Amino acid sequence: MRKFLKGAAGVLVFVIVVVVVVYVATSPQQPAPESPSTAWLQAGPYAVGSADYTFVDRSRVTNANRDAPAKPERTFITTIWYPASADSNYPLIVHSHGILSNRAEMPYLMAALASNGYVVVATDYPLSSGSVEGGATPDDVANQAGDITFLINSVLNLPANEKPFSGTIDANRIGLSGYSLGGLTTNIATYHAQLREPRVKAAVSIAGLAAPFSPTFFRTTAVPYLAIAGTADALIEYRRQAADLPDKVSNASLVTIEGGSHLGFLGVADPTFRLMENPDTLGCASVLAVVGEDPNAAFAQLGTAEQGIDLARDLPGLCENEMLEAVHPGRQRMITQIAVLSFFESVFNESRTRREEAWRELTQHLVADFPEATYRGRY
Known about the structure:
Helix content is 34%, strand content 20%. The protein has 379 residues and is of the alpha/beta class. It has a single domain, classed as Alpha/Beta hydrolase fold, catalytic domain (Rossmann fold). α3 links the parallel β3 and β4 (119-124). The longest helix has 24 residues, at 2-25. Residues 11-22 have low confidence and may be disordered.
C-alpha cells in the first residue's frame, strides 16, 4: 500500500507539473508593458465588492414556458458589483446575459468596470438563463427590456441601509451592456420605439443580434453605441449581424475581432477553451436545442417593418457559418475588456482628460496593440 501511495503521489505530481507547463505555454500574449493598452488591463483604483439581491416585480407576469406554468410575478436573482471603500456619485451599467447563461458570465468585465468606479448590475432573466424551469427560451426577450427598467428602478430606490456601496448612483449616467441574446436585449432597451428605456445614455452590444433591424429602428436616439463582434463567431454571423452597424446606426462604433468566436467572450473561455480550434462547436449544439426551428421567431413579437423590425431582410440562421479557427480566447477577452471600459469612460468619466484618453485608446491604441482588432465608426 505504501508503495502504491508513493506511486500515486508521483503520478499526481507529474500531472500537476504537466498542467502547469501547458497552462503557461498556452497563455495569451500580453501587449508590450509600455503600450497604452497595458494600463487598461490593470485593475482600477477601487477595490471591488459584490452583493446578491432578489428583486421581485409584482406588476408583470412570467409567461408559461413549455411544461412550466405561468407565474404572477417576475423574480430576479441579481448581483451588484461596486467600488468598495469609496464614496462617490457613480455611473450605473446594467448587463444582460446570453441565452443559457447567467449574470456571472463575464466576471472580468464586471471587475474591470467596478474597479474603475462603476456600479454594475446583472440578473438571471426569468426565462432565458440556464437555470430556468422549463428550459431557456429566447421568446421572452421583448419582456427583458422592461426588466432592465425594473432593475434600474430597484437599484436607484435601494434604501441607504440596504445599499452595498457608499455614495449614490448618477441617474444621468446609465449605460447598458449585453452579450448575445443580451446584446439583443440591449438593442431593444436602447432603441425600440415603445420598449426603450429613455434613461440609457450609452450602450454596448457584444456578439449581439441586430440583423432584423433596419436603420429606421435605430433612429429613436443618438446615444453613443458600441458593438463588439468576432469574425469566427459560428452562432451570430458577423457579416449580417454586425458589419453594417456603423452604417445604419448613428453615433455607432464597431470593434471587430479577427478570429473572435462566440464563446470566446465568456469568462470561462480562458483557460477552458485555449486548446480548441473554435469553442463554438460546443455552443451551437446547446443553443440550437432551445431556440426552435426558426431562430428569428422572437423578432416577430417586437413590431413591424414600419417600426424597423423587418423579417423580410436577409436574415442569417444560427450556426450556419463555417467553423473557422478562433483567436486565443485570452486575447479576445483582453480586447473586449479594453473596448468596453474605454468606451464607457469616453462617455461617462467626469474628467475631460480621461474621456479623451479613453477615446484615443478605443479608436487608436487598441488596434495598434492588438493586430486582431479593427475599429470603425462614427462616434
